[in-house]
Amino acid sequence: MTRIAIHDRIRGDIEGRIMSGTWEAGHRLPPEHAFMEEYGCSRMTVHKAIDGLVDRGLIERRKRAGSFVAAPKAHRAALEIPDVAGEIRGQGKDYRLGLIARVEREADGRDRELLEIESGPVLSLQCLHRADGKPFALEERLISLAAVPAARAVDFAQESPGAWLLAHVPWTDARHRITAIAATRPIAERLAVPLGSPCLSVERWTWRSDARITYARQVYPGDRHALIASFLA
Amino acid sequence: MTRIAIHDRIRGDIEGRIMSGTWEAGHRLPPEHAFMEEYGCSRMTVHKAIDGLVDRGLIERRKRAGSFVAAPKAHRAALEIPDVAGEIRGQGKDYRLGLIARVEREADGRDRELLEIESGPVLSLQCLHRADGKPFALEERLISLAAVPAARAVDFAQESPGAWLLAHVPWTDARHRITAIAATRPIAERLAVPLGSPCLSVERWTWRSDARITYARQVYPGDRHALIASFLA
DNA sequence: AAATATTTGTACGTATGTATA
DNA sequence: TTATACATACGTACAAATATT
Predict the structure, then answer these.
(1) Which protein residue has its CA closest to C1' of D11?
(2) Does residue A64 reach within 7 angstroms of strand D, measured from its CB?
(3) How far apart are CA A51 and CA A61, in angstroms?
(4) Residue B39: which residues within 8 A CB-CB, separation 6 or more?
(5) What is the rounded distance in angstroms from the CA atom of residue B21 to the CA atom of residue A207?
(6) What is the predicted pLDDT for the residue at A1?
(7) At the N or C end, where does chain B have fewer CB atoms within 10 A?
(8) pTM listed for this prediction
(9) pLDDT tier at B46, thresholds 50, 70, 90
(10) What is the Cα B156 distance to its own chain's centre?
(11) A56 and A146, same domain (yes or no)
């Protein structure tokens, strides 16, 4: 029983040698032929193993020259940005959604800027996510109704906009901007924190192909929330 | 001239149909045989094309059942965390490093906790990164000298600890924690911001295999700095 | 409950193209 | 210029998992 695929074993072996420091950045790997012999497999199989490492940025290939251990890049970390509802429930807490405002309108200047659209109808939402009754995050969201007409019919008092969009709208690109801000009066009141206290602001722009779908800004009380990012292989 | 690889073309075509919404989440793709005929290529080639999409999480495969468009997962974003010096220079600004404190000592209670070590010598550094003369970030760093003895000999008044470690020490894992904090008095003074003003705190723990290498905490003035994370394919 | 057919998973060996030290 | 080493693709084969009959 070939419990583990040959290419996975080769990949793992190489990865181990890189991670352990045996093969440092810039080290030239043996040519694929050498692995063929070492593992008694075909070159395709070796190639596939290395393919995986190239995808992960651990190895760079240059024709004629060979395959090399890549120089460590700047730290890249994978930041999980789950929808707020899922995050709260994942902590075993009771999630409740409060819809503060829902407005359908023609895009005004700010809407156009944030959604990068010329014109068109937008849905503007403001809501407060609560965990075990306590304010958890304040969310401001713009949805381009031209891009997502179905959003008109959704009852966002029941379903959080993030969760609904995630489930119904595929995106091709998203960009996040994370800053620390001081709580303004409306934020302080909604989140029940002192005026001016530090808050974490996470803004997200989401595209599908070249159309902006939605803009969201979530504000968390700074002392009660942290974003965790893990090393990205 | 085969300008573009067949598998890349197939992959792109499928990706397009998913992204455009033509194939929604849960949609079953035609079997690999169908693509063989459509593109007049071998199954290996089709398989490789789909492999790429599986790696990116766009498609899930089940034997006998087929390949399916995956449900969109929670957002994962790639957070670039370059070393501060590189980041400042990348913005075309003049980088200067100020070493505030450098202490070599036996690990005290807090050191042991942050580095997850029983005991041993540590190097504690505090420094201020400046961009065009203005305070940019305050860094507090602990290095386990048992794991990185070479750090003893480095002149961290010349080279930023982040850059040196990145270049000299391979890591296998890192974890980041991002929060918003209020500037304490020492922070406010070093960064030249008002006491209590919001700051972005980025903490990082770095491992090699199972040994903790270093702990770092960087504090940025909240209104002058943002972390940018892009969608992770 | 068991047999069958379908579909993906892995790997082989071969061939030819391409960039480059 | 040439030999090397990666890049792509072919066709074949059998294994593994699982819907369907």
Answers:
(1) B42
(2) yes
(3) 9
(4) B6, B9, B10, B45, B46
(5) 13
(6) 44
(7) N
(8) 0.78
(9) very high
(10) 23
(11) no
Place of tokens 């960087």: B218
A83 chain-B contacts, CB cut-off 8 A: 74
Q: Are residues A57 and A112 in the same domain?
A: no
Say which DSSP state B183 is in. Answer: -
Label residue B73 exposed, middle or buried (CB < 10 Å: 0-12, 13-18, 19+).
exposed
Which three-class secondary structure state does DSSP give residue B137? strand
Distance of CA B9 to the CA centre of its chain: 30
pLDDT of residue B98: 96
Interatomic distance A204 CA / D18 C1' (Å): 41
Q: Are residues B99 and B28 in the same domain?
A: no
What is d(CA A172, CA B72) in angstroms, rounded to the nearest whole number? 11
Q: Considering the domain boundaries, does residue A1 fall inside one?
A: no
Residue type, B127: C
* Average pLDDT estimate for B155-179: 86
Phi-psi domain of A166 (left: phi exceeds 0; alpha: psi -120 through 50; beta: other)? alpha
Q: Domain of residue A54: give its range.
A: 6-69
What are the pLDDT digits (tens) for B101-133? 999 999 999 999 999 888 999 999 999 999 999
Asked if residue B1 is part of any domain, the answer here is no
Report the domain count for chain A.
2
pLDDT tens column, A81-139: 778 888 899 899 999 999 999 999 999 999 999 998 889 999 999 999 999 999 999 99
Return the CA Rg of chain B.
Answer: 24
Each residue of A165-197: pLDDT tens digit?
887 877 777 889 999 999 999 999 999 999 999
B111 & B27 share domain: no
Best B7, B47, B75, B208 member to test A by mutation, with max A CBs in 10 Å, is B75
